[in-house]
Specification:
- With 147 residues, the protein is α+β, with helices and mostly antiparallel strands.
- Helices cover 27% and strands 33% of the residues.
- It is elongated, with a radius of gyration of 17 Å.
Protein backbone atom coordinates (compact mmCIF):
# COMPACT_ATOMS: atom_id res chain seq x y z
CA UNK A 1 0.00 0.00 0.00
CA UNK A 2 1.30 3.45 -0.88
CA UNK A 3 0.20 6.78 0.52
CA UNK A 4 -1.92 8.98 -1.74
CA UNK A 5 -1.04 12.62 -2.27
CA UNK A 6 -3.97 15.05 -1.86
CA UNK A 7 -2.84 17.00 -4.91
CA UNK A 8 -2.81 13.86 -7.06
CA UNK A 9 -6.33 12.94 -5.98
CA UNK A 10 -7.60 16.51 -6.50
CA UNK A 11 -6.06 16.74 -9.97
CA UNK A 12 -7.59 13.42 -11.03
CA UNK A 13 -10.93 14.48 -9.56
CA UNK A 14 -10.71 17.73 -11.55
CA UNK A 15 -9.95 15.87 -14.79
CA UNK A 16 -12.94 13.57 -14.32
CA UNK A 17 -15.26 16.45 -13.30
CA UNK A 18 -14.29 18.60 -16.28
CA UNK A 19 -15.23 15.71 -18.57
CA UNK A 20 -18.69 15.50 -16.94
CA UNK A 21 -19.40 19.24 -16.70
CA UNK A 22 -18.22 19.76 -20.28
CA UNK A 23 -19.61 22.85 -21.96
CA UNK A 24 -22.26 23.36 -19.25
CA UNK A 25 -19.89 25.67 -17.37
CA UNK A 26 -17.91 28.74 -18.33
CA UNK A 27 -14.93 27.99 -16.08
CA UNK A 28 -13.54 25.23 -13.85
CA UNK A 29 -10.86 25.95 -11.26
CA UNK A 30 -9.11 22.99 -9.57
CA UNK A 31 -7.89 25.28 -6.77
CA UNK A 32 -9.15 28.18 -4.61
CA UNK A 33 -9.48 30.66 -7.47
CA UNK A 34 -10.89 34.11 -6.80
CA UNK A 35 -10.53 35.93 -10.13
CA UNK A 36 -13.61 34.80 -12.05
CA UNK A 37 -15.58 38.05 -11.91
CA UNK A 38 -18.61 37.93 -14.16
CA UNK A 39 -18.16 34.37 -15.43
CA UNK A 40 -21.10 32.03 -14.95
CA UNK A 41 -21.54 29.23 -14.23
CA UNK A 42 -18.25 28.49 -12.49
CA UNK A 43 -17.09 25.39 -10.61
CA UNK A 44 -14.32 25.54 -8.03
CA UNK A 45 -12.67 22.46 -6.47
CA UNK A 46 -10.20 22.75 -3.61
CA UNK A 47 -8.75 20.89 -0.65
CA UNK A 48 -11.01 20.51 2.37
CA UNK A 49 -8.62 18.67 4.71
CA UNK A 50 -7.78 15.06 5.43
CA UNK A 51 -7.96 12.41 8.11
CA UNK A 52 -5.13 9.95 7.84
CA UNK A 53 -5.68 7.00 10.12
CA UNK A 54 -2.71 5.65 12.06
CA UNK A 55 -1.96 2.39 13.80
CA UNK A 56 0.48 1.72 16.62
CA UNK A 57 3.99 2.47 15.44
CA UNK A 58 2.69 5.13 13.01
CA UNK A 59 2.02 2.68 10.20
CA UNK A 60 -0.73 3.91 7.88
CA UNK A 61 -4.10 2.24 8.29
CA UNK A 62 -5.85 0.63 5.36
CA UNK A 63 -7.98 3.67 4.51
CA UNK A 64 -7.82 7.41 5.02
CA UNK A 65 -10.20 10.17 3.97
CA UNK A 66 -9.46 13.28 1.95
CA UNK A 67 -12.09 15.99 1.76
CA UNK A 68 -12.62 18.38 -1.09
CA UNK A 69 -14.92 21.36 -1.45
CA UNK A 70 -16.84 21.70 -4.71
CA UNK A 71 -18.54 25.04 -5.25
CA UNK A 72 -21.01 25.98 -7.97
CA UNK A 73 -21.36 29.69 -8.74
CA UNK A 74 -24.22 31.02 -10.90
CA UNK A 75 -24.69 34.74 -11.47
CA UNK A 76 -27.86 36.04 -9.87
CA UNK A 77 -29.62 39.38 -10.19
CA UNK A 78 -31.86 40.23 -7.24
CA UNK A 79 -33.47 42.91 -9.40
CA UNK A 80 -33.87 40.49 -12.32
CA UNK A 81 -37.14 39.12 -13.60
CA UNK A 82 -38.74 36.03 -12.09
CA UNK A 83 -37.77 34.10 -15.23
CA UNK A 84 -34.10 35.15 -14.87
CA UNK A 85 -34.03 34.19 -11.22
CA UNK A 86 -35.66 30.83 -11.95
CA UNK A 87 -33.15 30.22 -14.75
CA UNK A 88 -30.31 30.80 -12.28
CA UNK A 89 -31.75 28.29 -9.84
CA UNK A 90 -32.43 25.82 -12.66
CA UNK A 91 -28.78 26.14 -13.69
CA UNK A 92 -27.70 25.42 -10.11
CA UNK A 93 -29.94 22.33 -10.09
CA UNK A 94 -28.38 21.15 -13.37
CA UNK A 95 -24.87 21.54 -11.96
CA UNK A 96 -25.82 19.50 -8.90
CA UNK A 97 -27.05 16.72 -11.18
CA UNK A 98 -23.75 16.79 -13.10
CA UNK A 99 -21.82 16.52 -9.83
CA UNK A 100 -23.95 13.52 -8.81
CA UNK A 101 -23.29 12.00 -12.26
CA UNK A 102 -19.54 12.38 -11.67
CA UNK A 103 -19.84 10.72 -8.25
CA UNK A 104 -21.89 7.85 -9.67
CA UNK A 105 -19.67 7.28 -12.72
CA UNK A 106 -16.37 7.68 -10.85
CA UNK A 107 -17.25 6.17 -7.47
CA UNK A 108 -14.04 4.11 -7.60
CA UNK A 109 -10.84 4.68 -9.54
CA UNK A 110 -8.38 1.89 -8.70
CA UNK A 111 -5.08 3.23 -7.46
CA UNK A 112 -6.53 6.70 -6.81
CA UNK A 113 -9.63 6.40 -4.62
CA UNK A 114 -11.75 3.56 -3.33
CA UNK A 115 -14.94 5.57 -2.91
CA UNK A 116 -16.28 9.09 -3.21
CA UNK A 117 -19.18 10.23 -1.06
CA UNK A 118 -20.93 13.44 -0.10
CA UNK A 119 -20.35 14.25 3.57
CA UNK A 120 -23.20 16.63 4.35
CA UNK A 121 -26.10 18.54 2.86
CA UNK A 122 -25.35 21.37 0.48
CA UNK A 123 -26.96 24.74 1.06
CA UNK A 124 -27.39 27.37 -1.65
CA UNK A 125 -26.70 30.93 -0.52
CA UNK A 126 -26.37 34.33 -2.14
CA UNK A 127 -22.85 35.71 -2.14
CA UNK A 128 -21.35 38.84 -3.61
CA UNK A 129 -17.98 39.37 -5.21
CA UNK A 130 -16.68 42.88 -5.80
CA UNK A 131 -19.05 43.50 -8.71
CA UNK A 132 -21.36 40.51 -9.11
CA UNK A 133 -23.84 38.55 -7.07
CA UNK A 134 -23.91 34.75 -7.29
CA UNK A 135 -26.01 31.87 -6.14
CA UNK A 136 -23.41 29.64 -4.50
CA UNK A 137 -23.87 26.00 -3.59
CA UNK A 138 -21.05 24.19 -1.81
CA UNK A 139 -20.58 20.43 -1.44
CA UNK A 140 -18.15 18.53 0.74
CA UNK A 141 -16.89 15.40 -0.96
CA UNK A 142 -14.80 12.74 0.73
CA UNK A 143 -12.48 10.40 -1.15
CA UNK A 144 -11.51 7.19 0.63
CA UNK A 145 -7.89 6.42 -0.23
CA UNK A 146 -4.99 4.20 0.81
CA UNK A 147 -3.16 5.38 3.92
Amino acid sequence: MSLENRKTVRERMATEMIAVYGTNIEAFYPYMATAFEGLSPVVRLYNGGSMRQRRAGYAPAADSAMRYIVQHFVRFDEAGSAAEQQAAEDTLDGLELLLMTFMSDQDQIPGVWKQIRMVDYSEPVLTKTSAYQYLLEAFILEAVVDG
